[in-house]
Amino acid sequence: MNRIAPEENAAQPRGGEGLGALCAILSAVLFGTMPLITKFAYQHGGNACTAVFGRFGTGALISLLLPLFIPGFSLRITRRQMLDVLKLSIFYALTPILLYLSYNHIGSGLATTLHFTYPIMVITLMALFFRSPLTGPKLLCAALCTAGVLLLYSPSEGVKSEAMGMALAVASGLTFALYIILLGHSSLGSLPATAVTFWLSVFAAAEVGAFGLLTEDLRLFAPWQAWTAYWMLGLFATVLAISLFQKGVFLCGEVKASLLSNFEPMTGVAIGILLLGETLTSRSAAGIACILIAAALTSRIRR
Fold first, then answer.
1. Which whole-number Å values give the CA distances from 170 to 28, 44, 112, in the listed order?
2. pLDDT digits (tens, 9 = 90+) for 32-90
3. Cβ-based neighbour number of residue 226 at 10 Å
4. Alpha-carbon distance 238 to 199, whole Å?
5. Is 249 helix (H, G, I), strand (E, B) or coil?
6. 192, 186 in Cβ contact below 8 A?
7. Is residue 166 a contact partner of residue 110, using CB atoms and an 8 Å limit?
8. Cα–Cα distance, 163 to 175 (Å, whole number)
9. Residue 297: which residues within 8 A CB-CB, separation 6 or more?
10. What is the pTM of this model?
11. Minimal CA–CA distance to 164: which of 209, 103, 206?
């Protein structure tokens, strides 16, 4: 995982890419638990801003405890790496804020659909600024992922202030795409993923906390059930999911990791069926099939 430059990463062995793809998929599955956990927090007095702050804050605290259990583990980073993490944290903190703000104007299904256009943004930006070739497999995978997300989420939930909401949702996809690209071209590849997660969580929590104080949306005095949910978000959707996603980006590349992250909405559908008694419709089944086919085709993608 000693990625310093894109050229070195391109020389990764195929086994490393396979491990990276697995990390990206596991990360997406963990991220897919967020809606269920966040909904539980909302039922006990939480709100969007506090959920994001609680997620990053508890994630930082959990990461801070790791040196107690992992011999030789260090959270130290260089000044250059600190600057890279700071830049990444801005885009990572902006992503959920923009997405949750879009929910005030459009339905969550449409917002999520627009947010998950970010794999296409990654492919486009990589081609424009890093000369990543627009190959047939990349375009086919992007088309299948887009079709899958459109099938999994219905944009017919009733909208208000539609233009603003759509713009915010697309912007959340763009900030996440920029996060992925900056991560892949950062100096952080030689660091343990959990160390990067700690510093990323610290900065993101500070940024979201400042935003929440300015907007008066930060509710720290929430019931214990809400804070239990925040701790779960900190462990599953921050320490584990972010660390796995970072490994995925460094091992299999920005494009593959972003395409495989479409397992996240599929996980949400699976949770709805298995835990919430929802029905698997033919539309959802077709969406899942599109994403699984796209995931299988990512093995043909070259950087």
1. 19, 29, 9
2. 888 788 888 888 988 888 999 999 999 999 988 877 777 777 888 899 999 999 999 99
3. 22
4. 12
5. helix
6. no
7. yes
8. 18
9. 137, 140, 141, 144
10. 0.81
11. 103
CA 149/CA 241 separation, integer angstroms: 20
| Cα of 6 vs its chain's centroid, Å | 21
User: Which residues contact residue 45 at a Cβ distance below 8 angstroms, ignoring those fewer than 6 apart?
Assistant: 219, 222, 223, 226
CB 9 within 8 A of CB 188: no
Asked whether the CA dihedral 245, 247, 253, 256 is positive or negative, the reply is: negative
What is 116-173 written as a DSSP string? Answer: TTHHHHHHHHHHHHH-----HHHHHHHHHHHHHHHHHS-S-S--SSHHHHHHHHHHHH
Query: Residue 155 — φ and ψ, nearest 5°?
Result: -90, 25
Stronger pLDDT, 51 or 16, i.e. the higher one: 51
How far is it, in rounded angstroms, from Cα 265 to Cα 83? 32
- For residues 138-169, one letter each, b for 16 or more C-beta atoms within 10 angstroms of the residue's C-beta and e for the rest, the string is beebbebbbbbbbbbbeeeeeeeeeeebbbbb
- Among 64-68, 172-176, 212-216, the minimum mean pLDDT is found in 64-68
The single residue listed with the structure tokens 């449409």 is 110
DSSP state of 236: I
Side-chain-side CA neighbours of 11 within 13 Å: the count stands at 6
